[in-house]
Write a structure and sequence with these properties.
Distance between the termini: 31 Å
Shape: globular
Number of helices: 12
Radius of gyration: 21 Å
Largest sheet: 6 strands, parallel
Strand content: 15-25%
Order of helices and strands: EEEEEEHEHEEHEHEHHEHEHHEHHHEEE
Helix content: 25-40%
Structural class: alpha/beta
Length: 438
């Protein structure tokens, strides 16, 4: 057998759709040929159906798998199955909400042991920058974590405390010294409104996490990166008011990248029903004008990528009180489709949005061999029908608990096949690998 050959009328190559024959050997793309190129007689030829497109596997650098310790919330088997069904072939797992949190070399080993041999797609890991791990980040860095996550406000779980401003600056200085990456949940607690129960009205929750909290914390991150030369990344940007300072920092050469998430692009505050805490996340979903500005920030390149921030929980934690409910949205399987749906409404092309899910997050993680269809790249591929229409139902989602803000969305597009190293991912596949930085 020579290998597998994909014939596609529309394959996403070098930022455009082309007719192509993609030749796969030993799990990698060996060549990309014209669509009418001859293939060996013994090749396994896969013809992408008319109207479907061949995409590189998506990369999601913001996923909370929660295993071990809170595996009833999610787990490696269920999360990676959901990823594959959404066309995502690589995820990077956040250092919380697992127990232990991934803040030491020993905890990282525990996390890897939990995932080994159980994953349907490739999985990498972030380390955690918490007060007790500062000063020893290099040990985890040497073990191949992709960078270090920190919070500037309480994380919601006791085992992952946040960094006060002085410790944030210390973390920025430390990652600069080892040429690592600091990824930051940026909300300034000085601007957050303390609360317990809030009741069922979304606007009461939204008022507790104003845009000023994001802008203040992001300014601190930019100041630290500017002073030290550190590489920093702003997680799940929800406040478009921060975009001018981010753009200015980039223009000044500050090493900063930014992500946003499908829920900030697909939803807006005024349409969130009372008690619908499946929409609760931090920072929160803001108003429609803010959403428009986030889309513009993506189109003009100020925002670098879109990732899921898949943060599920058990259904009982999603009480109908906005103050008491767990904050996190489950969207790993459907985030790409949700953004494509909204992109169509805005008159944007598939070519426009694809880098946000592929080369953008791949670059953040330092992957040169993912997120693209090119010779030498891994044969991580997805077949996508961009014109399909389906109402999303939680019963059809593979993540562990049947709760999602995306339930009921009439979504455009559907992933029909996902391939990992040239092998089709099935319902029982565990062919994913654990991957490390570099």
């Amino acid at each position: 057998m020579t290998g597998t050959v994909f014939r596609a009328q529309h394959a996403w190559i070098d930022g455009a759709f082309r007719t192509a024959t993609v030749v796969v050997e030993d799990g990698r793309i060996a060549d990309v040929l014209p669509g009418d190129a001859a293939t060996p007689a013994d090749a396994d030829v896969q013809v992408v159906p008319d109207g479907h497109v061949l995409l590189p596997g998506l990369v999601d650098t913001h996923v909370h798998v929660n295993e071990p310790g809170r595996t009833e919330w999610e787990g490696f088997a269920s999360a990676t199955r959901a990823a594959a069904l959404g066309g995502v072939t690589t995820i990077i797992d956040m250092p919380l909400n697992s127990i232990p949190a991934t803040t030491t070399v020993e905890a990282l080993a525990t996390k890897r042991a939990s995932a080994e041999g159980r994953v349907a797609v490739d999985v990498g890991f972030w380390g955690g920058a918490v007060p007790d791990s500062l000063g020893s980040l290099d040990a985890m860095h040497q073990q191949g974590v992709f960078g270090f996550k920190c919070f500037t406000a309480p994380s919601g779980v006791d085992e992952f405390p946040h960094l006060e401003p002085a410790l944030l600056r210390a973390a920025i200085e430390e990652v600069a010294g080892i040429d690592a990456l600091l990824i930051v949940h940026a909300e300034d607690p000085a601007h957050l409104v303390p609360h317990e129960a809030l009741g069922g009205h979304y606007e009461d929750f939204l008022a507790t996490r104003p845009a000023a909290a994001e802008e203040s914390a992001i300014a601190q991150v930019i100041d630290g990166a500017r002073a030290t030369g550190a590489r920093v990344h702003v997680l799940h940007l929800s406040d478009a008011g921060a975009l001018p300072m981010i753009r200015a920092a980039k223009d000044d050469g500050v090493r900063i990248t930014v992500e946003t998430c499908p829920h900030y692009l697909a939803f807006e505050a005024s349409t969130i029903p009372d008690g619908a805490t499946e929409f609760k996340c931090c920072p929160p979903i803001r108003d429609d004008a803010n959403r428009d500005a986030l889309w513009q920030g993506l189109v003009d390149g100020t925002i670098d990528m879109v990732v899921s921030d898949h943060s599920p929980s058990t259904a009982d934690l999603k009480t109908d009180d906005w103050g008491l409910a767990w904050g996190g949205i489950a969207g790993l399987q459907v985030g790409f489709r949700a953004v494509w749906t909204e992109a169509l409404r805005r008159g944007l092309s598939l070519e426009t949005i694809l880098p946000w899910f592929t080369t953008g997050p791949a670059a953040l993680a330092g992957f040169a061999d993912r997120g693209r269809i090119a010779p030498g790249a891994l044969a991580h591929l997805a077949v996508f029908d961009p014109s399909a229409t389906e109402v999303i139902e939680v019963a059809g989602l593979a993540h562990r608990n049947p709760v999602s803000a995306f339930a009921g969305l009439e979504a455009r597009g559907r992933v029909t096949e996902t391939w990992l190293r040239g092998q089709r991912v099935t319902a029982t596949s565990v062919a994913g690998q654990l991957v490390t930085r570099g």
